[in-house]
Amino acid sequence: MESVASYYTYWAVYMAAALIGYWCWGRMAFWVAERGVVYHLYSALGAVLIFTPLPVTGQEQTLAPGFVAIAFTFISEGLSGLYEFTVWYLASTVLAVIALIVGLILVKPETKAKASIVKREQPSSVPDNPFR
Length: 132
Known about the structure:
- The structure is a single chain.
- The protein has helices spanning about 1-25, 35-50, 65-75, 85-105; strands at about 55, 60-65.
- It is mostly helical.
- The chain has one domain.
- It comes from Thalassolituus maritimus.
- Keywords: Membrane, Transmembrane, Transmembrane helix.
- This is Transmembrane protein.
């Protein structure tokens, strides 16, 4: 029973770290000006990569984070050992796309009043700056 409690503790720690990782994944999309379909597809890809659990090779009742299980399986078995994980990632991808479609259809974009942006006047040239 002690190992089961430890197993769930590790998964709780992993989920907390994965949520932080997913937040960081979203921060990597700083270049997206408007959060449209491309941004949501990017977020779905991050969620699938970070949150998909996979069975540990040799212990089908034990799950591990997907990217960790794939790394160790690739090191130990090569590409031939990765085929069993395609079903798990395919199922996660299908669920992510369904959630994305439902979210895009049901959730209406917020209508925000655009604040007027005051543009600062830049000098046409700056002394000692060869680029201006």
